[in-house]
Amino acid sequence: MYQVPTRAARVATAPIETRLGSAFGRLTNVSATGALVRTDVPFDTGQHCPMIVNLPDALVSVGVRVVRSEPMRVERSGTIAGLQRYLVAVRFTELSAQAKHAIATLCLPGRTDRG
Predict the structure, then answer these.
(1) pLDDT at 79 over 60
(2) Contact (Cβ atoms closer than 8 angstroms) between residue 25 and residue 63
(3) What average pLDDT does range 10-17 have in this prediction?
(4) What is the Cα–Cα distance from 22 to 2, expressed in whole angstroms?
(5) Which residues share a beta bridge with 88?
(6) Pick from 21, 110, 31: which is nearest to 69 by CA?
(7) Which of 11, 57, 63, 111 has the fewest C-beta atoms lying within 10 Å of its C-beta?
(8) Mean pLDDT throughout 1-22?
(9) Is residue 103 within 8 Å of 32, Cβ to Cβ?
(10) 3-state secondary structure the chain
(11) What is the average per-residue pLDDT within 67-96?
C-alpha cells in the first residue's frame, strides 16, 4: 500500500550565516531533508548549487537543489528603499558524514545554542 511521505520536521534556527551559491544569506530553519535561507537574490527553481553553513565550530558544505524562491515582505523603518529579500527553500542533495552530523545536531529538539 502506498503511503504519503511525511514532511521532515523543521527547526527554527538563529540567523546563521550561509552562502548559497555565490549569494550570502541567513539560515531561517532546517530539517533532515532541507533548509530555508533568506537571501538578497532570487534563485531559479530546480537550480543546483553548493550551500555553506557557517556554524560556530565548523563550516559545513552541502549540495542543494532549489525547490522554491519567493520574495518576502520587508517592513522595517530605516530600510533601504527598493531593498528586496527572498526566502529560498532548498533540498539537500549531497551530504558528507560531517554535514549529516551537523544537520542532525541543528535538528535536535530543544536545542538552544543555535549560533
Answers:
(1) no
(2) no
(3) 86
(4) 40
(5) 37, 69
(6) 21
(7) 57
(8) 76
(9) yes
(10) CCCCCCCCCCEECCCCEEEECCEEEEEEEECCCEEEEEECCCCCCCCEEEEEEEECCEEEEEEEEEEEEEEECCCCCCCCCCCCEEEEEEEEEEECHHHHHHHHHHCCCCCCCCC
(11) 82
